[in-house]
Amino acid sequence: MKNLKDWRIIASLALLMALLAACGGAQQAAEVNLAAPGNSFITGTVTYQDRSALPPDAIVEVELADVSIADAPATVLATQTITVGDVQQAPFPFRLAYDPAAVNPASRYVVSARITIDGQLRYRSQTIIPVITNGAPTSDVEVLVSPVLAGGAPGMLTGVVTYLERIALDPAAVIEVELQNVSGGVPSVLTSTTVNAEGQQVPIPFELPYDPAAIDPAGTYLLYGRIRVNDAVTWATPTGVPVLTNGAATGNVELVVSPMAATTGGSIRGTVTTPRPPGQLPAGAVLQVELREPMLADAPAVAVVALPMDGLNFPVSFDLPYDPATIAADRSYAVAARVMADNRMLYATLSPVPVLTGGAPASAIVVPLGEVPDAAGGVLRFTVTSDTAATWPVDSGAYLNVEIREPMLADAPALAFTYVPLAGLSLPVSWELGYPPASIDANKQYVLDARIIDNNALTYSATAPLPVLTQGAPANDVSLALTAQAPPPTGGTGGNEGVISGVITTDAPAALDPAATYFIDLREAGTTGDPIVTISAALEGQQFPIPFEVPYVPADIDPAKSYVVGARILLGDQVLYASAVGVPVITQGAGTSDIVVNIPPQ
Predict the structure, then answer these.
(1) What residues contact 60, with CB distance under 8 A and at least 6 apart?
(2) d(CA 284, CA 346)
(3) C-alpha angle with apex 29: 26 to 32, nearest 5 degrees?
């Protein structure tokens, strides 16, 4: 969930702007500066994603505020009011003056905006936009505003379903619009509506009511459109359109459908995921999802859909139509996926997901992908094995974390690492790890280390890290043995569980991406092996300081030894922050509560 403090800030900003608006009429580009204006400015634009035009008397208000003090009203430093007029439409440029001598480097400054029509609030910022300090920008700041529902009424998504082809729509066509929640990886339909064409031609307008109370501000919601004729899907959106959260639209949503092969209504729906999504996919990336017989790899796929990934990231929902007449009940079928960009494969399925026959599902499936290293760089092929057999079900969230690092720097960021989804796989597991050859020092030693995390618990770890790459160690086709770890206690504490609690802080705070993930490790001090416990969780809007709890088994703790916790924050494969040294805990006079783990930026 988003930080409650941020929502209080937005509410405070909205109230302050309402008071300012009430104090006088708006004029084109009028500025009010509550601090002495120096020679510095914050410049940028205010925009929105739907395609509706604003009336000439619409008012755009932009505000700079100091929001450093928690649970206190924001201090407004500067405002600008813009009347839309007869010509100007979004994006609306703004310019806010501020006094750099009055800026406190430790304070937090934000820009927000709102749009009113006839005195009624119609759009406002849904997220905090940091500026000035902690590396935040002062120019080219984009403030995205979203429609505001009036009076707490039931939510309503509005828009049109259309297509680009010049083909008349069959009078018997039925238009379907569906809202899906894809926040947890497995899509679920929240609400849907149908519109009978009855002679209408595209664009076909729709209204889709929804319950605002069911919407998580930190969640991801997609809108899909389909056109059926005699129960056959003839047109469908190739991918969902984001709505409701993260600045996405709620009105004037355009669902562009593409022609589909006529079928009797067969459709496989699911979500493509990866254990640790990248910060951003390259421009032009395309997700390909296909249905095929797994034993006929060289045969044409039964069905294929290609989804452009521009502006999207994992998880991605898909709708894969197929013709049931081509499916034989006595054969096996599976769904696989890959992400391509510039003729290079970026992600691929390790284990195709069974569907349709033999009791396999046809909807709500999850297709996990592993990252494929760039062959132009260094590539280390590896296999992990264990004396303890393991098989993971197709819906498992377990993943294998493999890394290359210097053996004596266990708490430092790895030179290279990858996350391999284990759904549908069994040990041994083989994959590839990319690394930057230019970063390899022939005079240093490097090791391959690995662990398996299942439901935030360490279930397997390397028996011993394996030397690789330098000083005569193998550079490819290596095998690393894993040892099964004792499962954590269940059924409540009962004196059998301990908890280390505290916060993650930094001396150089910056706004954290909601998609970033934090990791906390508990390990024996001075050791280079796997942690005793590792936990991880998505930030989902949390900012510094970040609270944490690390469970451990007191029976596994030796009072004569020292233990430490360390932390790191990742956005995809990028390490944003990481511990320089571990913080003592549990033994030798160290505590287990109110632990402060300070992590510098990387």
Answers:
(1) 46, 81, 82, 83, 84, 92, 94, 113, 114, 115
(2) 12
(3) 70
Q: Using CA atoms, how far apart are residues 216 and 562, in angstroms rounded to an integer?
A: 42
Residue found by looking up tokens 């310019």 in the block: 95
Q: pLDDT tens-digit profile of 141-192?
A: 888 776 664 444 467 888 899 988 877 888 888 899 988 887 765 567 778 8
What is the Cα–Cα distance from 485 to 451, expressed in whole angstroms?
10
Q: Tell the burial category of 439 from Cβ atoms under 10 Å away from its Cβ (0-12, 13-18, 19+).
A: exposed
Of 3, 243, 10, 53, the closest CA to residue 143 belongs to 10
Distance between alpha carbon 224 and the CA centroid of its chain, in Å? Answer: 20
Q: How far is CA 425 from the centre of its chain?
A: 25
Q: How many CA atoms lie within 13 A of 381 on its CB side?
A: 4
Average pLDDT score over residue span 383-398: 88
Q: Phi, psi at residue 537, to the nearest 5°?
A: -160, 150
Which H or E element spans position 538? strand 533-538
Asked if 62 and 111 count as a contact pair (C-beta separation under 8 A), the reply is yes
Helix (DSSP H) and strand (DSSP E) numbers for the chain:
1, 42
Q: Which of 274, 286, 265 is nearest to 362 (CA)?
A: 265
